[in-house]
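[agent] plan:
  1. take the single chain provided in the ticket
  2. run structure prediction with default settings
  3. attach structure tokens to the ticket
  4. add a short note for the reviewer (M.T.)
[agent] executing step 1
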Amino acid sequence: MGSKFTSTASQKTGLPLDLVPLQNPYQLGEDDSLSVRVLFRGEPLKNQFVVVWHRNKFIFLKVQYRTDANGEIRFPVMTRSRWMVSTVKMVRLGKGAGADWQSYWGSLTWGYQ
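[agent] step 2 finished; step 3 output follows
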């Protein structure tokens, strides 16, 4: 660890389901908020359930959000804990696909010491 911050944390991964932080979580102050954009096949995924998991040695929280028209959620962050943002996108498959549904799972994790 050092004091140099890059934009790597905010880059798209290119995976079908992508959770992209719009700020570097390591540059946030105590009680700042983080925005995360959810993309599916490169496009903002609106009205998608997203779960934010927060844990430190005293508490465990799990809060559900729904993305807005830009595929974004925003939530307050405490900088003395571990975090995970996750979502699952289900896509109905056509006949002859060998399955009824395809699931796409995405997560974003970070933590503070």
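[agent] step 4 note for reviewer: The CA atoms of residues 1 and 26 lie 11 Å apart.
[agent] ticket updated
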